[in-house]
Amino acid sequence: MGKQKESSGWLGDLIESFREFTKERRIAEYERIGRFDLAAKLTLELYGLGAAMRVYESAFEVSPVNRNYTIDYPEIAHAAATLARQASRSEKLWRVMDLYERAIKIYSKAHSLGGFFESDKYAVKLAHEAAELAIKNGDRSSAIRFYENADVADIDSHAKMRNAAAQLAEKDIWNTAQAIHNYEAAHNFDRAAQLAEERGYVEKAIENYERAGNISRAAQLAIKNGYIERAVQLYEIAGMFDEADELIAKTPHINRQKKGYEEAILQYGLDISFKKDVAAVLAKRIGNMMEADRYYKEAMWTLDRFDDYSLRAAKLAERMEKYDVAISYYQKGGFHSSAIKLAERIGWSRERINDLHESEIRYHENKGNIDIAVALAEHNFGIQRAIQVFRNTHKYADGIEYVMKKLGIEAAIKFGEDVCLFEDAAKLAKKTSPGRAMLVYERGTQHYIGAGMFSWAVYLAKGSGDSELLKSVCEECIKRTRFAFEWDAIAAAEYAETIGDYERAKKFRAIAKTLPMTDD
Questions:
Q1: Whole-prediction pTM value?
Q2: Rg of the chain in Å (alpha carbons)
Q3: Which of 50, 244, 298, 375 could form a disulfide with 235 if both were Cys (CB 3.0 to 4.6 A apart)?
């Protein structure tokens, strides 16, 4: 009996090993044909959550040259997020955090490779979920770190993450420096300055008030804490020369004669922190016009290398009466209204100003500010240009609502058909007549059949509620299906079952067993 049991155990292990081997081969095959959802499902069963997440990550490593299928990146990103949420119910906190972070990175990749415009919105939502989970488990530092490290591409989303990290860090007095750093990373310089002042970080407060453009507050804080020379510099940098002169007059030990100004000019001229424009103004004050012109040119060259300083460069160019250059810098920094106002003031042609309006619309399209882009497009170019915004940003459902409101139901139906939202278009058409709706359903099914998207055609036919349309669509899908692989025959069987033709369905399933999974 003992020998028989041992043999049975050995055989059981062998069978189990064979099953695992078979599943591994199926995983590899699923990945090869682009069915990462099925590969991840099997991998989860065999190796767990981390390995399943790796399957989703691998989808982004496949070169388009080496595959004959289309990857649905948004679908993969959502699946990865679901996996992370699943982990939160069973895994240790550090493991959950890792999976959430990987899922957020997948959203970022989906954005860059697949044009997934909503990716950062979902990434931020995931980050908040993970942080709340960490806080619930009493681990605030992990939540802060998670916000800091999460990888999102959009500037606004990045700012939200860093602000969230700063607000968490702010709750602990010993995390003040970290909170200030995160506010700075979010370009929330006002709050960074206020917090630094409240907690006694005087130099940081002065620095951030300056960066926020609140020069008066920065200078007052510098004076209050005895940094008189710093206050003078702040006033000079901001072009507040009357205030600088008044402070110099009140403080004899820093009273500047001509030599003092020359030293200041040299200091600002050599400074790499973009203060050459101040050197130019100071040189102009003491009558050295050649020196002023030289520093103006150097300041423009320095500022040109840094996007963050485009507004300062634009104002400097405007002061130098280089208006075309100023307009280009306003655009570069996203200050389109300033560019347009300047162009109108200096008498640009309507055609050139329209180009600026177009640039502003495209800027907001790319930033995902759809409402602003639509309002600008409608105001400057009319309704058709506003509709184009919805097309450009793939906000088709919102586009249908807009067209309905502006141009009426018929135009909305046509827009829905044009962008292949046949189901939405048909629902609108029902308000006109059932016959009109059925015509939209028929066009939609024919479109999907023509594109080889049989499942979508059947889905749309089912939604129509017309059994005759459903039957004709299923018949046409079966007729066009080539039984090259297993899933072709299975799909045909499912279409046959949908219309109650169980004999044909049985026949197709039998055929499926004789066909390969893929083309080896």
A1: 0.45
A2: 32
A3: 244
